[in-house]
Amino acid sequence: MATSPPAAPPRSPTDGAERSPWRVEGAPEQEPEKRDGALRSWRPPGGRSFWLVLLALLAINWYVSSTLSSAEPRTTVSYTFFRDQVQGGNVSEVTSQADQIEGSFEKAARYPPGTPAAGEEAKDVQRFETVRPEFATDDDLLKELIANDVEVNARPLDERPLWQSLLFGFGPTLLLVGLFVLLMRRAAGGAGGIGGLGRSRAKRYESSEQRTTFADVAGIDEAEEELVEIVDFLRNPDRYRRLGGMIPKGVLLSGLPGTGKTLLARAVAGEAEVPFFSLSASEFVEMVVGVGASRVRDLFEQAKKAAPAIIFIDELDAIGRARGGGAALGGHDEREQTLNQILTEMDGFSGSEGVIVLAATNRPEVLDSALLRPGRFDRRVAVSPPDQAGRTKILEVHSRHVPLADDVDLGAIASTTPGMVGADLRNLVNEAALTAARRDHEHVQLADFTDAMERIVLGAERRIVLSPEERERTAYHESGHAVLGMLQPGADPVRKVSIVPRGRALGVTFQSPESDRYGYGADYLRGRIVGALGGRAAEEIVYGDVTTGAESDLEQVTAIARQMVGRWGMSKEIGMVSVLPGPQDEPLLPGTGGRASEATLQLVDVEVRRIVDECYSIAVEQLRSNRDRLERLAKALLERETLDERAAYEAAGFAPSERYERPDAAAASLTRE
């Protein structure tokens, strides 16, 4: 009977990690200085082309050095002219070698003298050269030179000082070779392009420089708790490795814009006290093919050297979209090469232990499935808009350095801002501070917050003058919205009614819920449609015709009714099926493999029209039954232009005790003319 070989002794997960707790998987053990790259041998990239370029540079250098080293040109003059200048005492010094003579005049002499011959040009000569004829060896030239105080030199012709010879001979060579070596080092260091095309553009933040912590994050506690484990692993890796546990290599943060995804990533880096590399996904892609993949390699190489480290890629969907689309042209475009390199770096043959990748996106549904599998982005954290308590905490964080007046209640402000995310609330606090500064307030008051909210949600006031007829029609239009909002059971309370033009609207009716809610009932949605059609119904009741003022109302009504029918199964004719694409899906055309047939889509249109017509009939009937309330509210608007919640209910004839019991609603309702 065969026996199995003895089992090997169990190996501790931390064996071999004593030298460096953050060893890159698959990398051979090296000396520290070799891992740092200080002793890496450098080979000239390009092979034969390197030497061709070097030879070309040397040829250019020879030409430049020969041009620079040439002395100032001398003018050749006749021997007779030279003798005349010597006899006239105009020669300062001469140098002679054999029969060649060169020197300088005391003063520039005109040569040739007299009228120049045809084809010649007279010019002033300072430095000259000439040749002594052989038959003039007995003309006593030396005696004449000495008699006229001419300095006779005993050096070779055109001899220069040593420093000039060295400068003109070797200076250009050293300059060009140094420039060439610098360019080649940049090309090698950039991993794929002269001038740093292939270098990563990620910004590195050290924990000593950038100290964002979880204390700066508020209102998104669930997402924060998901990332605490990442921080603990970076601080205490042995706590997990001794039990064989592995931290996720990638964490994907998904959520609406402004919910705090980037802030969370910075907080993780600040809490873990590790280097933090941050960049946008669009910075990988360039016009030159291969640059994106090169930048990915360079980024991960920098992060591995600084391990433990965090890489944060913002807007991942810019390069992480699903492959195989029509624009891919066989799957070899620049974006897909960059994506493939990211996939390899995150979970390829060479692992990246000690490097955690955080990424943020607003559209996780379009990402490639290979990115989302375990081993890459194997943990997904949804960063949702904050609830009322979360919004209160966010307002407290952003108002830490803002002096608030005693009448400011951040909890009450948070209750009127459903659906707002962290960026919106920060903007609200900033706008309130700017408003208080314009009014010379010492503290930010509640009125400043209210006006800032109106400016953000409703738009800035427009300085236009409406005719009396158009102003009256606008008052009835907004009164129709407001009265139906007050009458409909379950509708959001009416917070403000105004006929002051703001943005693109001539008037505004603002409704917001009293608390957050995350589900929509069919009755609530029908009530929203009835309220949105109140302006159109009021115009028809009062004037007998309609105007273009209900354009935005009709768009809102159509969108709600279409989603009720096609996405939420609130129509008996369509049933409990989803026949329309979601808001993030690509449009699907009938007959091209879409979700619904042409006949089904036609039935959707019929059902949408039926729901809208029924709601409009309810709006007209309720306004006819409450014509007195409509008239009183319109009259109050014409007198005061803007009514807050209490004034609006009183003008419409509702006592405070007559307000309907309203269930919580999900989002603010804003109806504009």
Q: Explain this structure to me?
A:
This protein is an alpha/beta fold. It has 5 domains: 50 residues; 85 residues, Signal recognition particle alu RNA binding heterodimer, srp9/1 (2-Layer Sandwich); 181 residues, 3-Layer(aba) Sandwich (Rossmann fold); 52 residues, Helicase, Ruva Protein, domain 3; 205 residues, Peptidase M41 (Methane Monooxygenase Hydroxylase, Chain G, domain 1), CATH 1.20.58.760. The chain is built from 22 helices and 15 strands. The strands form 3 sheets. The chain has a 6-stranded mixed sheet. The chain has a 5-stranded mixed sheet with strand order 1-4-3-2-5, with helices on one face. Strands 14-12-13-15 form a 4-stranded antiparallel sheet. Helix 9 runs parallel beside helix 10, helix 17 crosses helix 20 and helix 20 packs across helix 21. The radius of gyration is 42 Å and the shape is elongated. The N terminus is likely disordered.
